[in-house]
Task: inverse folding
């Protein structure tokens, strides 16, 4: 009889830090340059070259760790992780091993309305490897542009219990790193990727089963599919009375299956030891406080403030806090029209503005400026234009630097709220449609819509329907 | 006397060139000729004829133009082949860094950059006449493991010059150059200096930039000068020392006036004599020579106290664990992928290419040390070897800290024996490793040391007596006390010469 197993999952996430230069040399981290152009003796691993730590990278790493609620270790050391591969020019990767710069953090995630706190074992700094390109005719080429790029590795506790939780965790880490400005969140270009450790145990068991490491997962969808595939594979093995082997596997999105990369016996002995080329990293209290300040509000803090103080709905706060650019835009508009109800800004941003927003790493390009939106919402709030017109004006000013006020004036879109003009229009309609008037008097309120519609048509939508209804009711009852 | 200029000291030569008394071209010429004439010593693996002459011509023009010249103007200097030079090949004495050129011959690796010390020498007008032979990857004490064959001691060409900076010591001793740079990981400057009768300095760890020195053991390697007198070594060290932002382990400690310190002599210094450096393995004639120096120091009015460095015996074992561990990692970049030797059979996979290239590129001693270093870092052995050796290193350092509370300078033999015969210890690694028994502890502690010639002796060589062979006395000081070291060394040099 098949038993029920509980998956135990922990992720190791690698996120590239947004520095202008590499971790141990002055080479640019620009993406997409011709192969082997962002290189120097240090990142080429030439004889005699030595690493010098990039302070900016340390700062961003500290900020990442703080955002993940980790404590900062004052003195940490870099270690060498030794293995041979052509994309690893020195024959070792400079990483942190025994003494990482931060540890013991956590992150709250939410899956299907259920909240959960996932532990983070440690965050450490390390350098990225280069890229092997397998060419035609069996040749392999190496591009070392990426070699030496600064990364943080975020090692999660085995606290996740489903592929959905793993995906939610991965997404939450990505969002938070993008939010505090340390990572561009770009999974396609490999600047955010993860390995997943997956094991199963009979439900109720407290000891861990044998774990399998799934390597190099670079999308939220794949992390879920890869873990599901691995859970299925391990379930079949365990149900058949077999034993899961400790090994490293990779996920093939084509077949939807995982395949073995290397067994435990083939695993590298990395022979970690402290890198004698680099003195211990000392992170003082001052630097930590500076980065805490630079980090600003975290998404969760922003959401709480918006809900508690501004009256936004949880959903709106969630959507608008997904990217720091959204937050800046929202707050920017709010500062320009302090009298306006924040909810109205949030609504319009959600329904209109975000549709035209393009996120590119840390940057968001909006189709309108904060000033344009502030002006538009002021017109709407004052009743100068209707909600429907606001959407039209928005569409007209998108991608231009036109002022919404000017557009409204140019097109004569001011709401017809001149009671005299509306009254003569309505009196004319009442006289021509006695039957409908009778129905209204008989209590069929929905027939009022007919008159409102006619007025809107006659004014080309520039009448305020609320004003029209009120006036109509008055005229119908008095005549 | 065609080679009279090369008999001058570093400081005399530089002052003559600066004063316009001697054209730099003439010095370059003499040095290059001397190197050619003594090619039997095999001190150089590359002679930079054209670039040295060009540099000399520029200096002479500069002087004629009335522009000031640097502190080493016109001084011919040999560079250990472990130092990267953009205009000369670098091979570290290894086949690993050789690649076949279009002319069908093997050529050393061309570095795209200069080591920081090389830049600093050029900036002060030194004439870089060539690259000096060395033990492969600086792993050795005899300069026999070089791919270009053994270097010979000018005092007796049947004997080794010491190592690993053997070529550098020979260049200075045989008056092929006025000075040389070597590198010292466990004694590789001091021991060949002693065997060749020249002055050799291992500065404090962090005093001189390692940027551009092909790494052997990063936590121990230091570049240092060799010259025929203490003052010459002091001037060269002043030029190459000082903080380098490209080397994170280089110290931001001001460089002293080492040449001025040489004027001070031994007066007022308290000397310590560590008992552990005068044990069983010490050649009696060397003991006698060092005791002679000590007697002169006492006669000069200095206090001399016996002291103890109880962890000295663990120096060799500690060193061979830590140095090989670091070396096994430092030498991983020699993988055949980007530079140097590559051996690949058609159709063979990556692992096979690595294996074949490294097997063909590295010599026996280098392979031995890579294996040893890999072993001591391996899972399950790390704590027993590497971690324990680090703790012993701390104890050795504390030994020195303690004795330096009571004395200013330690005086010891540099090497337990005089230069041995070529081939004598090649198959006995342990005997070879013992050659550095008196120099290793200072390397492990990071403190500065100097070897100063202090006498000559002959050894029984079968039925015959050997030619006279030099003996070196080693002086050690606390971290960054190079000024004191030079004061003591210049004083000792003067006392020895006065005999
Ligand atoms: Zn670089």
Result:
């Amino acid at each position: 009889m098949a038993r029920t197993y509980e998956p135990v999952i922990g992720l190791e996430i690698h996120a590239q830090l947004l520095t202008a230069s590499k971790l141990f040399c002055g080479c640019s981290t620009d993406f997409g340059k011709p192969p082997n152009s962002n290189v120097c003796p240090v990142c080429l691993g030439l004889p005699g070259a030595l690493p010098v730590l990039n302070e900016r990278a340390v700062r961003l790493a500290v900020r990442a760790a703080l955002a993940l609620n980790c404590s900062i270790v004052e003195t940490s050391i870099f270690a060498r992780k030794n293995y041979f591969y052509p994309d690893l020019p020195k024959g070792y990767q400079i990483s942190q091993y025994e003494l990482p710069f931060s540890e013991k953090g956590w992150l709250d995630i939410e899956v299907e309305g259920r909240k959960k706190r996932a532990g983070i074992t440690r965050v450490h700094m390390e350098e990225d490897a280069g890229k092997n390109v397998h060419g035609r005719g069996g040749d392999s080429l190496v591009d070392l542009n990426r070699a030496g790029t600064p990364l943080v590795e975020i090692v999660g506790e085995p606290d996740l219990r489903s592929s959905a939780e793993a995906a939610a965790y991965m997404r939450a880490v990505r969002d938070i790193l993008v939010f505090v400005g340390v990572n561009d969140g770009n999974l396609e270009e490999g600047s955010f990727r993860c390995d997943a450790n997956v094991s199963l145990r009979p439900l109720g068991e407290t000891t861990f089963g044998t774990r399998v490491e799934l390597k190099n997962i670079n999308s939220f969808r794949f992390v879920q599919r890869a873990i599901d595939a691995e859970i299925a594979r391990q379930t079949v093995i365990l149900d058949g009375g077999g034993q899961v082997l400790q090994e490293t596997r990779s996920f093939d999105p084509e077949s939807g299956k995982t395949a073995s990369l290397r067994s435990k016996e083939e695993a590298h002995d990395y022979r970690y030891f402290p890198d004698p080329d680099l003195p211990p990293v000392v992170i003082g209290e001052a630097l930590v406080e500076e980065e805490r300040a630079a980090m600003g509000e975290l998404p969760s803090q922003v959401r709480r403030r918006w809900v508690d103080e501004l009256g936004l709905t949880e959903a709106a706060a969630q959507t608008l806090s997904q990217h720091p650019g959204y937050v800046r835009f929202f707050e920017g508009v709010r500062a320009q029209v302090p009298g306006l109800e924040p909810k109205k800004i949030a609504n319009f941003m959600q329904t209109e503005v975000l549709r035209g927003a393009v996120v590119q790493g840390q940057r968001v390009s909006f189709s309108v400026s904060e000033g344009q939106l502030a002006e538009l919402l002021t017109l709407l709030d004052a009743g100068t234009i209707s909600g429907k017109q606001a959407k039209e004006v928005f569409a007209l000013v998108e991608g231009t630097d036109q002022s919404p006020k000017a557009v409204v004036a140019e097109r004569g879109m001011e709401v017809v709220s001149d009671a005299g003009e509306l009254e003569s229009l309505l009196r004319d309609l009442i006289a021509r449609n006695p039957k409908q008037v009778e129905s209204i008097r008989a209590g069929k309120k929905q027939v009022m819509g007919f008159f409102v519609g006619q007025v809107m048509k006659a004014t080309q939508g520039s009448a305020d329907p609320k004003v029209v209804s009120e006036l109509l009711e008055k005229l119908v009852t008095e005549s | 006397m065609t080679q009279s200029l090369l008999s001058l000291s570093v400081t005399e030569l530089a002052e003559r060139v600066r004063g316009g008394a001697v054209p730099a071209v003439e010095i370059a010429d003499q040095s290059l000729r001397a190197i050619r004439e003594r090619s039997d010593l095999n001190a150089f693996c590359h002679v930079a004829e054209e670039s040295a002459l060009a540099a000399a011509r520029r200096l002479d023009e500069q002087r004629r133009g009335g522009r000031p010249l640097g502190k080493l103007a016109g001084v011919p200097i040999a560079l250990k082949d472990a130092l990267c030079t953009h205009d000369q090949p670098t091979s570290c004495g290894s086949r690993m860094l050789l690649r076949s050129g279009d002319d069908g011959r093997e050529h050393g690796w061309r570095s795209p950059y200069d080591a920081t010390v090389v830049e600093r020498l050029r900036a002060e007008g030194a004439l870089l006449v060539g690259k000096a032979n060395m033990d492969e990857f600086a792993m050795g004490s005899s300069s026999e493991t070089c791919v270009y064959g053994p270097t010979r001691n000018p005092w007796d060409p049947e004997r080794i010059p010491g190592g690993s900076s053997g070529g550098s010591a020979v260049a200075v001793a045989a008056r092929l150059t006025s000075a040389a740079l070597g590198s010292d990981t466990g004694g590789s400057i001091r021991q060949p200096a002693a065997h060749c009768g020249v002055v050799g300095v291992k500065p404090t760890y962090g005093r001189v930039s390692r940027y551009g020195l092909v790494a052997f053991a990063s936590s121990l390697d230091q570049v240092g000068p060799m010259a025929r007198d203490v003052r010459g070594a002091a001037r060269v060290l002043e030029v190459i020392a000082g903080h380098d932002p490209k080397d994170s382990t280089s110290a931001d400690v001001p460089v002293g006036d080492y040449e001025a310190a040489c004027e001070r002599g031994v007066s007022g210094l308290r000397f310590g004599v560590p008992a552990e450096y005068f044990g069983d393995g010490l050649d009696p004639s060397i003991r006698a020579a060092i005791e002679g120096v000590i007697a002169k120091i006492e006669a000069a009015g200095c206090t001399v106290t016996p002291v103890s460095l109880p962890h000295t015996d663990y120096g060799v074992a500690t060193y061979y664990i830590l140095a090989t561990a670091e070396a096994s990692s430092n030498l991983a970049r020699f993988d055949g992928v980007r530079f140097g030797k590559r051996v690949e059979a058609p159709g063979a996979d990556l692992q096979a290419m690595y294996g074949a290239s490294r097997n063909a590129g590295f010599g026996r001693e280098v392979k031995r040390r890579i294996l040893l270093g890999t072993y001591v870092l391996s899972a399950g052995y790390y704590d027993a070897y590497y971690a324990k050796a680090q703790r012993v290193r701390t104890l050795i350092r504390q030994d020195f800290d303690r004795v330096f509370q009571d004395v200013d300078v330690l005086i010891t033999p540099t090497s337990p024996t005089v230069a041995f015969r070529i081939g004598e210890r090649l198959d006995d690694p342990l005997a070879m490793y013992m050659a550095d028994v008196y120099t290793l502890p200072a390397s492990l502690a990071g403190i500065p040391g100097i070897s100063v010639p202090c006498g000559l002796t002959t050894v029984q060589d079968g039925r015959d007596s050997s030619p006279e062979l030099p003996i070196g006395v080693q002086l050690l000081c606390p971290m960054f006390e190079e000024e004191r070291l030079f004061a003591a060394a210049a004083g000792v040099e003067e006392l020895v010469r006065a005999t």
